[in-house]
């Protein structure tokens, strides 16, 4: 078994971080494996949703601190290694955001530092009761500046800043209340709930979800009037599709749509 496992079912790709002995840390190897799968999924039209989970007792504990310590041994004190590391991590996070398929985090145990960043980067998240979330690098003298990017785009500023500066953890219920996760379920129902959510999304017209995901993130930082102009143009294009015409007709005629596109 590799460091990142994948299996596909019902148009859903399930990716499982598989380094439980290291709490599924985002090591150099894990980042490379994730980037490889992002490239494959981007071109895979048979996949309409993605679920990311973790093996063992934790979802993801962030970057591999042992590897980071080794990176310090270079003549420049690790500057080049660390720059490359955080660039590669950012490439994974932005790559997930740019995927045409919605990505769902299936979270249990802990999601800390870059692991919490991974949850915040995913389009949706389902967490097991008892899961803890933190951007706790400040506790070891390393402010979670890159995880802050995704976190501060998910939850209110003051709550994000408190987590970043205190290193305190929040539980799954608090994470849901703040908007970091969509659903909290008992751990024995976690996989089923994440899969159910993914299958619900996968059952929609894939082209519509793709254009919608892209527009969602494009418009979110625009001024209000610009956002309406932009999304209006997106809806015009969407309305002109044959499959959208068919979807509306099917709804009015109380039947299932006969879509051409996947």
Number of domains: 2
Mean pLDDT: 95
Write the CATH homologous superfamily of the largest domain. 2-enoyl-CoA Hydratase, Chain A, domain 1
Sheet having the most strands:
6 strands, mixed
Annotated CATH topology of the largest domain: 2-enoyl-CoA Hydratase, Chain A, domain 1
Terminal residue distance: 31 Å
Q: What radius of gyration results from the CA coordinates?
A: 20 Å
Fraction in beta strands: 5-15%
What is the annotated CATH architecture of the largest domain? Alpha-Beta Complex
Low-confidence stretches: none
Q: In DSSP terms, counting alpha (H) and pi (I) runs of 4 or more, how many helices?
A: 11
Structural class: alpha/beta
Structure notes:
By secondary structure, the protein is of the alpha/beta class. It folds into two domains: about 5-200, Alpha-Beta Complex (2-enoyl-CoA Hydratase, Chain A, domain 1), CATH 3.90.226.10; about 205-250, Lyase 2-enoyl-coa Hydratase, Chain  A, domain 2. About 50% of the residues lie in helices and about 15% in strands. It contains eleven helices and nine strands. Strand 2, helix 1 (about 30-40) and strand 3 (about 50-55) form a beta-alpha-beta unit. The protein is globular, with a radius of gyration of 20 Å. The two termini are about 30 Å apart. The model has no long low-confidence stretch (mean pLDDT about 95).
């Amino acid at each position: 078994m590799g460091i990142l496992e994948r299996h596909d079912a019902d148009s859903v790709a399930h990716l499982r971080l598989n380094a439980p002995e290291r709490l599924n840390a985002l090591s150099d190897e894990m980042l490379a494996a994730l980037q490889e799968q992002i490239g494959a999924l981007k071109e895979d039209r048979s996949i309409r949703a993605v679920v990311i989970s973790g093996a063992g007792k934790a979802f993801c504990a962030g970057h591999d601190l042992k590897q980071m310590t080794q990176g310090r041994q270079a003549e420049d004190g690790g500057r080049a290694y660390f720059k490359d590391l955080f660039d590669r991590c950012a490439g994974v996070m932005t790559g997930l955001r740019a995927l045409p398929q919605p990505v769902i985090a299936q979270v249990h145990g802990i999601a800390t530092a870059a692991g919490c960043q991974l949850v915040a980067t995913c389009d949706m998240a389902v967490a097991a009761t008892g899961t803890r979330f933190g951007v706790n690098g400040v506790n070891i003298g390393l402010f979670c500046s890159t995880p802050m990017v995704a976190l501060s785009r998910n939850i209110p500023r003051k709550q994000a800043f408190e987590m970043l500066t205190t290193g305190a953890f929040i539980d799954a219920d608090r994470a849901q209340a703040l908007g970091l996760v969509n659903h909290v379920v008992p751990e024995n129902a976690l996989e089923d709930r994440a899969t159910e959510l993914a299958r619900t999304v996968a059952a929609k017209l894939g082209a519509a979800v793709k254009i919608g995901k892209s527009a969602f993130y494009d418009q979110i930082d625009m001024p209000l009037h610009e956002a309406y102009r932009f999304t209006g143009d997106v809806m015009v294009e969407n309305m002109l599709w044959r499959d959208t015409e068919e979807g509306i007709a099917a709804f009015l005629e109380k039947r299932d749509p006969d879509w051409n596109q996947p």
